[in-house]
Specification:
Number of strands: 11
Number of domains: 2
């Protein structure tokens, strides 16, 4: 394991006594990155071809594509303590809130013709995106809701970008809201005590076609920004 920790997005000092043994099969499935097309990872050191897993580009984990500037943990805590009435004002203060992040460089296909197969998936924050890809690989367009960027509950990853590179599809991602808490009780458990690196939550679509002129249609905040549970929030 290298010195770069994809969960924390920082360099870490390796302490083998603290880390103990690594489950390479588990590690490869969670962080299957590569630097060159020919890169592969062997699972148990023997010559069985079934124990070799092909990896996908390291740029799938690139966070520089994100349109929303990072909000510090301190700023998010400050916003969390703001009165409910400030919800719309704080939302309007977000830079690039209505900008769509697009990557048209992933799919080799430039245009789509004829009948298209469209699939919609409630991805539940994108945490288990890799478990769903086999069901989606034949789709021409995949509509995804609940896709995190930089949430500890989903390994602080750009879940849409990882999925897009894995499937070889272009993507568009738009912000729904900034998470000011680690999420539900289950989310907090999945976070393993880590902080949210970016705290972004949104919707996306993947396609084999070229994406152009996307638009975000955004409702007013209303009761959603509230410290009390309502019929529209958690």
């Amino acid at each position: 394991m290298g010195d770069w920790n994809h969960r924390l997005e920082l360099y870490v000092k390796q302490d083998i006594k603290h880390i103990g043994t690594l489950n390479c099969d588990h590690l490869a499935k969670r962080f299957p990155f590569k630097e060159k097309e020919e890169d592969v990872i062997k699972m148990d050191g023997d010559d069985d071809p079934n124990d070799i897993v092909k990896l996908f580009p390291w740029k799938a984990a690139d966070m520089s594509t994100v349109m929303i500037p990072p909000l510090s943990i301190e700023r998010r805590e400050e916003w969390y303590d703001s009165p409910d009435s400030d919800g719309q004002k704080l939302t309007d203060a977000l830079q690039n809130i209505n900008e769509v992040e697009i990557d048209n460089s992933i799919s080799p296909q430039k245009e789509c013709k004829g009948t298209l197969k469209v699939v919609e998936l409630n991805a539940e924050r994108g945490r288990w995106w890799m478990k769903s890809v086999n069901l989606l690989k034949d789709a021409d367009v995949i509509i995804l809701n609940e896709m995190d960027i930089g949430m500890a509950r989903s390994d602080n990853q750009h879940t849409t970008r990882l999925m897009a590179h894995f499937l070889g599809m272009n993507y568009a991602w738009g912000l729904e809201f900034v998470e000011l808490t680690p999420g539900t009780g289950e989310d907090r458990y999945n976070a393993n005590g880590l902080e949210d690196f970016r705290g972004l939550h949104g919707n996306a679509f993947l396609t084999k076609c070229t994406i152009s002129e996307p638009v975000i249609f955004r409702n007013q905040i209303g009761q959603y920004f509230s410290s009390e549970a309502t019929n529209v929030n958690a």
